[in-house]
Amino acid sequence: MEANADQFLQLVHQFEDFTDTMSPERAHMEFDETTLQLFWMRWPQLSSWAGSLWRLLSEELSGPSAPHHDPELDEVGESG
Fold first, then answer.
1. pTM (two decimals)
2. Looking at residue 5, what is its pLDDT?
3. Within 13 Å, how many C-alpha atoms sit on residue 9's CB side?
4. Terminal CA-CA length for the chain
């Protein structure tokens, strides 16, 4: 399971790096027809999957946070 998470994070970082250097307009002008067609055909499924994951995380993170139940994680200020 950790390998899947690592692979996913690596893909996200690669996509971020790519989008930092290539605007959509430039990609549209420079990519060949096959690349554009494959993107056009596959993006709806990828976008749907990513949107579903984002919604699940958004719902999870929109609620109040739960306190830690591990006393070793609690931070206590110093008195002095």
1. 0.68
2. 96
3. 6
4. 46
